[in-house]
Structures are given as structure tokens and as C-alpha cells.
Amino acid sequence: MELLTQARNVGILHRQTQAYITAVSSPMGISFSECILLMNIYGNEGINQEKLSTLLFIDKAATTRSIQSLEKKGVIRRVTGTEDKRAKKLFVTGKGREYQAYIFKCLEAWEKVTTEGMDEAVKDQVFKGLQMMAEQSMRTDLSECSEFKEEGHKDAIEPEVE
């Protein structure tokens, strides 16, 4: 498949998934980013904010803002760690637990929509491939992209101006 088509398809899937999660989380009064964090706290009770940021590969400041908002909304609570007073452990409240079944039911529905017509083997292959791509992209030092330019490949990055 052509690289541009792949990039377009990944972008479309990302934007549509974000729009879907935004739509299904809005009745709960939480944003897309808050929903993503909450879904990951469900499976990682007691995780601290730093580890959550690392797990999701997102900015620590953005994590902090969303965590503070979820806490104000009564969906999660932060507990100061006993060994490290700076590390706040994250736990879901009763209110947050009420959302869990709904959120995961919505995610299952979205998976059905996006994988309709695929057999289990194809779905498994697609999901494993996406996981591998995500992991590889996280290991990539983006500052190395400038090295490509410095190695005499300037024309591949910057088009000639006439």
C-alpha cells in the first residue's frame, strides 16, 4: 500500500475514534483525554501520574490537567504514596466505577464498527501490526530526523524552489 494512503488511513481512524470517544464520553461530562486516562486507570489502579504519562506516551503536564479535572468531577482520587510523598497514586471512585461498563461497551461497539467484515485472524494481525508500529514509533528518537537532512538528503525533505 502506498505510504501516503497508509498515513491518510491512520489519520482518519485516529480522528474518527477520537470523535466517537468524545461523543460517548460527553454524557458523563468528561472529555476525550479524560476518558482515555480513566480507561487506563481502570486496569492500573494505584498507578502514579508519571507512569500513566509514560504508558500513554503523553505529556506530563497534560496528564496532570486531566487528572485534576477528573478528581474535581469525583471520578478518581489521588492518594499520596507512602514511600514517595511526591508520587500521587490514582484510584477510581464509586462514581468512576459507574462509568466503566458503559465505556467498555462503547469501545466494543466501536471495534465492531471498524472491523466489520474482518475475520478474527485478520483483526488479530491488524491489531498486532498496529501495536508493533506504535511501539517502534515510541522508541524512535525524532531528533534523528534532522540527521537525515544533514546527511545530504536535503532534497528529500525540502522541495526545490524555482
From TrEMBL:
This is Transcriptional regulator. Transmembrane segments: none annotated. Keywords: DNA-binding, Transcription, Transcription regulation. SUPFAM superfamilies: Winged helix' DNA-binding domain (SSF46785). Residues 1-135 form the HTH marR-type domain. Gene3D superfamilies: Winged helix-like DNA-binding domain superfamily/Winged helix DNA-binding domain (1.10.10.10). Signal peptide: none annotated. Pfam families: MarR. PROSITE patterns: HTH_MARR_2 (PS50995). Residues 146-162 have a biased composition (Basic and acidic residues). It comes from Paenibacillus helianthi. The keyword tRNA-binding does not apply. Residues 142-162 are annotated as: Disordered. It comes from the Bacteria. PANTHER family: MARR FAMILY REGULATORY PROTEIN, TRANSCRIPTIONAL REGULATOR, MARR. The lineage of its organism: Bacteria, Bacillati, Bacillota, Bacilli, Bacillales.
